[in-house]
């Protein structure tokens, strides 16, 4: 219904939340996980939130590492520690809506020796 009370036809589907951050990479610096990603294309992005999965299984709790959105497209988590972690980044718009999560990146990836030929200093 429009403002005049007239019913219209179907409209195209449009998400009103930010898209997923792209090109997320991780780098181990001892116990610190350093992350970087590309800025989202939407103009109304207020910042980004970082989430961490504290293990390799989905039953492990997801932790929001950044309570407030960070404006930068990089983040360091000194509390990551020596264990295997998986990180996700979401964009936050001016309304405070979180968008679609990025693809994950690993910190202290299990079976790292297997992936060594395919991994550089910065990896996914």
Can I get a quick summary?
With 124 residues, the chain is mainly β.
Polypeptide structure, described:
The protein is mainly β and 124 residues long. It has one domain (25-118): Immunoglobulins (Immunoglobulin-like, Sandwich). Helices cover 3% and strands 31% of the residues. Strands 4-3-6-7 form a 4-stranded antiparallel beta sheet, with no helix packed on it. The chain has a 3-stranded antiparallel beta sheet with strand order 1-2-5, with no helix packed on it. The longest helix has 4 residues, at 112-115. The chain is elongated, with a radius of gyration of 18 Å.
CATH class group: Mainly Beta
From the helix content, strand content and strand pairing, which structural class follows?
Answer: mainly beta
Mean pLDDT: 89
Q: Which stretches of 5+ consecutive residues score pLDDT under 50?
A: none
Q: Can you summarize the main beta sheet?
A: 4 strands, antiparallel
Number of helices: 1
Domains (count): 1
Observed structural traits:
single chain; 124 residues; mainly beta; Immunoglobulin-like; 4-stranded antiparallel sheet; 3-stranded antiparallel sheet; 7 strands
Write the layout of secondary structure elements.
Elements: E1 25-29, E2 32-36, E3 45-53, E4 62-64, E5 74-77, E6 85-93, E7 105-107, H1 112-115
Antiparallel strand pairs: 1-2, 2-5, 3-4, 3-6, 6-7
């Amino acid at each position: 219904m429009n403002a005049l009370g007239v019913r219209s036809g179907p409209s195209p589907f449009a998400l009103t939340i930010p898209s997923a951050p792209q090109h997320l990479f991780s780098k181990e610096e001892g116990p610190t996980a350093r992350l970087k990603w590309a800025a989202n294309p939407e103009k109304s992005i207020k910042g980004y939130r970082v989430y961490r999965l504290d293990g390799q299984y989905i039953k492990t709790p997801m932790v929001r590492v950044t309570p407030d959105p960070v404006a930068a497209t990089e983040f360091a988590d000194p509390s990551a520690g020596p264990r295997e972690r998986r990180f996700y980044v979401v964009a936050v718009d001016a309304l405070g809506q979180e968008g679609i999560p990025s693809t994950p990146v690993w910190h202290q990836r299990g079976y790292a020796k297997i992936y060594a030929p395919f991994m550089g200093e910065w990896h996914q």
